[in-house]
Amino acid sequence: MLSLYVRNLFFTIIHPGLVAVLIPYWILGHKWKEQFSLPFHIYQYLGMVFFSLGLLILLNCIIRFASAGQGTLSPIDPTKKLVTSGLYRYSRNPMYSGVSMILMGETIFFTSYHLGIYVFIVVLIFNLFILAVEEPRLRRDFGDEYRDYCSKVRRWL
After folding, report:
1. How far apart are CA 48 and CA 38, in angstroms?
2. Is the pTM of this model over 0.70?
């Protein structure tokens, strides 16, 4: 079990860490430092709310993948069981929603047009990946169990 949590930590750093931390850091450049030296405005608190909710959703999903799914968030080390509990009772893709909320929170906090464009592109890529890669793999791996799950739970909210 410890190995599973270590693998999840590694893939969390690689996948959402790259998408939600490193690339936004590169996009923002010096703006991230400047923003913290100024007094906060209401929109920054709103951005922190989005960021925090997204982070809680992401962490909840990662833990559920390890505990209920016996796998990781990475397509190269997927879950061995279909995860349909927790937030997955309401959405088939809460982890992607969580990462998107983190990115929206960063966009609001930094009021960055460039980050907003990045969020739009990331959400589009998420959707294309889910349709073209992830859902076909889940249908192949879990068969009728996944088809039944799809009939009961929406792709998004």
Report:
1. 15
2. yes
Chain segment 91-118, per-residue pLDDT in tens: 999 999 999 999 999 999 999 999 999 9
The helix/strand/coil state of 35 is: helix
- d(CA 44, CA 78) in angstroms, rounded, equals 36
Amino acid at position 37, single letter: S
Low-confidence ranges of the chain (pLDDT < 50): none
Local structure of 55: helix, strand or coil: helix
Q: Which of 152, 16, 26, 12 is nearest to 85 (CA)?
A: 152
Question: What gap in Å lies between CA 123 and CA 57, rounded to an integer?
Answer: 16
Give the integer Cα–Cα distance in Å for 31 and 57.
27
